[in-house]
Amino acid sequence: MKFAISALLIVTALSVSAFGADETAFPQILRKLILENGFTPAKELYVNPDEGLAPVGKVIFESKKLSLNGNISCQTCHLAKFGSADGIPNAAAIAGKGEGPERLLSGAKLLARNTLPFWGRGAKGFTTFFWDGKVDFSDLKRFSQFGSHPPSEDPLVVAVHLPVVEIREMLDEDQFVTAHKVESAERAKEVYGAIADNLRKFEPQASESLASYLKKPVAQLAYVDYARAIAAFIRLEFRLKETKLERFVKKSDTLSPEELHGGLVFYGKGRCITCHSGPHFSDFKFHAVPFPQLGFGKNGFGVDYGRFNGTLDPKDLYKFRTPPLYNVQKTAPYGHSGSVATMEGAIIAHFDPLRLMDLSSMDPVSRHEFYKRMTLSSETATAVGFLSVSDINDVVMFLKTLSF
């Protein structure tokens, strides 16, 4: 009902404008829609219970000793120059050299998915992590690979536990890793213990600072302690900042005609707000959008079942978490496998995905998979109205106001 009323307001305003009404109504309507759909100033979203650990977290975040044997750090794939991601479709992890495209061409082992940016991670309301939500603390849930005994009640700290034990991501499969390659939290604890030993040995100063902050002996530092420090750094370094859109809401800045129109499309006929609502411009729910599949896919042979891999619920097939939109301009390429190079293409995928596909060049299995993704994405296809080229360009201009 709220959407119907809002849409009616827009249609009415546009109709009146055609007969010479005062066009200052458009900014007023857009501000109202933005506020009604959960906008929150950046400063109000920042929360960091361990901010004092951020300097230590920076050292560990940048340390290749965080990897037990892969010579890779968090920073390897999360770089400022690529908007806190790596600028390439599928993450290039261990056994590579350089950054971004250079690393991709250096022989690095590829992962199945696109590197996610860090903006706003761990802020108020940001409790669901990774493309498939394999750490999800929303709505009183405690969903993760740790089952009913997560290592922390802080979902970001839990999320920091996963990349370091992911083979090909930050672990190379040597003899030690092979011996512990069992789906068991107990075996994982041994790997975490080895990583903590590694950090105590090769990052002694940071470890001393961490132990001092936590008021415990260095010898008793566990991986969860280092994870708390990394989480503190991520929250501080990648905190949300004031954007042009926030200044517009506060009436201290104005939008161009293109940005204004793009905003009205975003909240109106584009129905972007159906999923991109709330303080982070994400509902943090899971939806199927038929993006092209690039790379081998999480399930192999060019297939990625998305959320289904964690829940084993057929209703979750091909669904991925709605991406937050802050700094989206800087985080190309887009989609779970990084298959779309531009923001325009990402928008098109929601209502006209066939425009992005060359079906004649696809093998039968790939076409079959695409048909299934199309079928299961009917929710998106029926929600989003058709957008003209100018509509798409203006929505992109509006989204750029979320940059800082």
Architecture overview:
The protein is mainly α. Helices cover 41% and strands 2% of the residues. The chain is built from 18 helices and four strands. It has helices at 2-18, 25-36, 42-45, 54-62, 74-77, 101-104, 155-160, 175-179, 185-202, 204-214, 223-237, 244-249, 257-267, 308-311, 343-351, 364-376, 378-383, 389-400, and strands spanning 128-129, 135-136, 286-287, 320-321. The longest helix is centred in the middle third of the chain and has 18 residues, at 185-202. The chain is globular.
Sum up the structure in keywords.
404 residues, mainly alpha, Cytochrome Bc1 Complex, Chain D, domain 2, 2 domains, 18 helices, 4 strands, 2% strand, disordered N terminus
**Helix count, DSSP H or I runs of 4 or more residues:** 18
How helical, in percent, are the residues? 40-55%
The CATH superfamily of the largest domain bears the name: Cytochrome c-like domain
Tell me how many strands there are: 4
Percentage of residues in strands:
under 5%
The separation of the N and C termini measures: 33 Å
Count of distinct structural domains: 2
Low-pLDDT ranges: 1-22
Q: Mind sketching the topology for me?
A:
Layout: H1 2-18, H2 25-36, H3 42-45, H4 54-62, H5 74-77, H6 101-104, E1 128-129, E2 135-136, H7 155-160, H8 175-179, H9 185-202, H10 204-214, H11 223-237, H12 244-249, H13 257-267, E3 286-287, H14 308-311, E4 320-321, H15 343-351, H16 364-376, H17 378-383, H18 389-400
Helix pairs in contact: 1-2, 2-13, 4-10, 4-11, 9-10, 13-18
